[in-house]
Amino acid sequence: MLLNKPLPFIEDFINELNKGLKSYNPDGGLSRIQRGWIGFCLMGIILTNSVCWARFERVSLGKYSLGALSWMFRKSKLPWEMMLQVSIAIVLKQYGISGGTLVTDDSDHQRSKKTPRLFKTHKIRDKGSGGYINGQNIVLLILVTDKVSLPVGFEVYQPDPQQQAWTREDQRLRKKGIAKKTAQRLHPIIQTTQLNQN
């Protein structure tokens, strides 16, 4: 069961986060409800070792519903990007970190076959089987220091549709055995690019 009150270090973090947001924008602080929701979610992550609304609902023993928790995430006007920046600044200050190395890391996450409502899903080559899966490719920007490594930015990657169309057309022309010079003249995407450049 989740504690009614967050652990002291979580409360301290939320207070620092609120102060940091206000320093950027005096009207940009967190409301009491937002602070309570963030505290509950951080407690949920610690107790369940996951980010899952259904698990959070279970450990709250019915105090919070899955729908209410996810609604707050989707609909509340939390300044997510600014919260990430301020959170990183809090951690760097706490550990006395003044430098580090930025590295990128990407990971593929398999999703179901039908994903019309999931953000930026596409066909991904499965390294394990050698086939293809439908999934998301998440790219993280990570700050690596002597004391701690932490994500400082992320983006969900999606292939360029024009590049994909070009590749498909190029493969089609190669299968027909059309010479490269002729293919460049016939290729509609190359023609469009050349027109745009002129």
Describe this structure in words.
The chain is of the alpha+beta class. It is elongated. Strands 1, 2, 3 and 4 form a 4-stranded antiparallel sheet that branches. It is built from 8 helices and 4 strands. Residues about 190-198 have low confidence and may be disordered. The chain has helices spanning about 10-25, 30-50, 55-60, 65-75, 80-95, 160-175, 180-185, 190-195; strands spanning about 100-110, 120-125, 130-145, 150-155.
What is the fold's blueprint, element by element?
Elements: H1 8-24, H2 32-48, H3 53-59, H4 66-75, H5 80-95, E1 101-110, E2 122-125, E3 132-144, E4 149-157, H6 161-175, H7 180-186, H8 188-197
Antiparallel strand pairs: 1-3, 2-3, 3-4
Helix pairs in contact: 1-2, 1-5, 3-4
What is the structure about, briefly put?
The chain is α+β, with helices and mostly antiparallel strands. The chain contains 8 helices and 4 strands.
Keywords:
single chain; alpha+beta; 8 helices; 18% strand; disordered C terminus
Provide the residue-averaged pLDDT.
79
Beta-sheet strand percentage? 15-25%
Query: Rg to the nearest angstrom?
Result: 24 Å
* Main β sheet profile: 4 strands, antiparallel
First-to-last CA distance: 66 Å
Structural class: alpha+beta
Q: Total number of β-strand segments?
A: 4
Number of helices: 8
Low-pLDDT segments: 191-198
